[in-house]
Structures are given as C-alpha cells and as structure tokens.
Design brief:
Length: about 160
C-alpha cells in the first residue's frame, strides 16, 4: 500500500468540507462556528487558487484518505500545518506517513527551499501531538518565542510545535 500526496483541486472541495465538519473531530478545532457549504466553497476556491497556500490530498489505493494544508505565516517559507485523516483510516499509523510526504511535497512546490513549519495543537489532542513528535516536530518553549518572531501566538490550552530541518 502506498500513500500518494497530490495538490488539492477544486474537485476536492466536498472532501475537505466533509472532514472539517465531522462531529467527532469538532473538539480539536479552534473555529467552532458551523460552516455552510457555500461559505466553505468560496474559502476553498480562494485557497487553492492562492500561490501562497499549499493544500494537499492523501490517497491510498485511489481512495481519498486525508488532507494536509499549509497556511503561510508572515515570513516567507514559514507555514502553519493543519491535517485530518478520514475516520476509515484512523489508528493505522497512516497519519505520520501522510505528514512526511506532505512536507516533502511542500519542499518541491516551494522550489527546494526548506520551510519552517509550525503546528498549534490542543493539549487534549493526544493523537495529533504524538504524530507530530514522530515526524520530528519539537515544542516551542517560551524562551524560543522571540527568536521565532512576534507573529507566533500560543493559543489557549495548546502546544505550539515547530519543524525545521
Ligand atoms: C490526528 C490524526 C490525523 C491522527 O491519526 P491517527 O490515525 O489517529 O493516528 P495514529 O492512530 O497513527 O496514532 C498516532 C499515535 O498517537 C497515539 N494515540 C492515539 N490516540 C491517543 C490517545 N488518545 N492518547 C495517547 N496517544 C494516542 C497512537 O498510539 C499512536 O502512537 P504510536 O504511533 O506510538 O503507536 C487523526 O486523529 C485526525 O484526523 N484527527 C482529527 C483532526 C486533527 O486533530 N488534526 C490535527 C489538528 S492540528
């Protein structure tokens, strides 16, 4: 079985919406307001047409398995990562492979430069934290915040992590 990462296209809009609105994941997201499909569609189209955002879909045996998105922060080549796995694929260790492949694809898409990637995760989201540590993320400590720039905010009840080669 091989996980394949590809850039998202407009045909993936429903898949992103379905994963983002799954009730069992709601507790792990910061934005709690319900999102309509038309709001989502506008947002999604703008994101995938943007040259600064990188949205990707993971496929396994031609089935859509999950998504990874990289949101640009204020500095060039600095991103925040977000990711979701479809419930059919949970608990099988696929998430870390999906992230490793997504980061490799991001490297290629930004011309071989090595990005700095942040993740902001609720402390209660144990699976997500475990996956990020496995992939090589480290926790940003309070004393490191200044060296990363003032754009970084540690959200309430969250851990801020970073990945750098
Ligand atoms: C985060 C997510 C991608 C992880 O996928 P997953 O298939 O559950 O991950 P895995 O089953 O491979 O678990 C990852 C690790 O976390 C551990 N884990 C899972 N649930 C856990 C829990 N409740 N407490 C402690 N560890 C846990 C697993 O044992 C595994 O560790 P191991 O690799 O050492 O065995 C998935 O749960 C998801 O899509 N969640 C909703 C969206 C989300 O939270 N995204 C992240 C936002 S930053």
């Amino acid at each position: 079985m091989r996980i394949i990462l590809r850039t998202a296209n407009i045909g993936d809009s429903q898949f992103f919406f379905d994963l983002r609105t799954l009730p069992q994941y709601e507790e792990f997201f910061y934005a709690k307001k319900p999102i309509s499909f038309s709001q989502h569609s506008q947002w999604f189209q703008a994101r995938i047409e943007s040259m600064r955002h990188f949205y990707m879909v993971a496929e396994l045996n031609e089935q859509l398995m999950g998504y990874v998105r990289f949101e640009p922060l204020c500095f060039p080549d600095v991103f925040e990562i977000g990711f979701i796995l479809h419930p059919d694929f949970l608990g099988k260790g696929f998430a870390s492979e999906m992230l490793v492949k997504a980061i490799s694809l991001l490297d290629i898409l930004i011309g071989g430069r090595k990005p700095l990637i942040f993740a902001s995760v609720l402390k209660s989201n144990h699976a997500s934290l475990r996956v990020l540590y496995k992939v090589g993320f480290s926790q940003v400590l309070c004393e490191d915040l200044n060296s990363f720039g003032k754009q970084l905010i540690v959200r309430p009840k969250s851990v801020l992590l970073y990945f750098r080669y």
